[in-house]
Amino acid sequence: MFKLSDEGLKKVQEELKRYESKNSAIIPALYIAQKENGGWISEEIIGYLSEVMGLPASKINEVFKFYTMFNQKPVGQYHVQFCNNISCVLNGSREVASEVLNKMHTKINDISLDGKYCFSFVECLGSCGTAPMMQINDEYYENLTAEKAVEIIKGLK
Ligand code: FES
């Protein structure tokens, strides 16, 4: 059964005190829970947060399902997100993604057999001036070429 660490729970409680409305603490609480759960959020976690935050699960679910930065299924140790929006696409992000997937012998949205990688397409990540780019967990990698992206991903330990 999922429970936040003492530190995670403390952070959620601090977020609840920070805002006038408890609803404003939903995004930070989901971030904290996702980080502690290896990168994704289950229905059980939504129920848990509902109890801890004193909010209806439906309210938390609304936020959770709206934002793509919250993952609804396991994403492996490294979640590689290729930006699939206009600046990145015009600058070759699909070619970058295609080369990476070929070299890693996997498909978009699959987790590699060793559980280490998951690749997905996402909308604009707010770094259009340095397109094409990708995000791996919390880090941005910009001005990519296919070779550079493969090298970065293969270099992950
Ligand atoms: S289009 Fe890729 S970061 Fe904006």
Structural commentary:
This protein is of the alpha+beta class and 157 residues long. It folds into two domains: 6-66, Orthogonal Bundle (Arc Repressor Mutant, subunit A); 78-154, Glutaredoxin. It has seven helices and four strands; from the N terminus they run ααααβααβββα. The protein has helices spanning 6-18, 26-36, 43-53, 57-66, 86-90, 93-104, 146-154; strands spanning 78-83, 117-122, 134-136, 139-141. Strands 2-1-3-4 form a four-stranded mixed sheet, with helices on one face. Helix 2 (26-36) packs across helix 3 and helix 6 (93-104) crosses helix 7. It is elongated and about 50 Å long. The chain starts with 5 loop residues before the first helix and ends with a helix. The mean pLDDT is 95. FE2/S2 (inorganic) cluster binds next to helix 5.
Spatial sequence of strands, sheet with the most strands: 2-1-3-4
Architecture of the largest domain, CATH level 2?
3-Layer(aba) Sandwich
Major β-sheet profile: 4 strands, mixed
Fraction of residues in β-strands: 5-15%
Report mean pLDDT, rounded to a whole number: 95
> What is the helix content?
40-55%
So, the CATH homologous superfamily of the largest domain? Glutaredoxin
How far the N terminus sits from the C terminus, by CA atoms, comes to 29 Å
Annotation field: number of helices:
7
Instruction: Give the ligands present.
Output: FE2/S2 (inorganic) cluster
Number of domains: 2
How is the CATH topology of the largest domain named?
Glutaredoxin
- List SSEs in N-to-C order: HHHHEHHEEEH
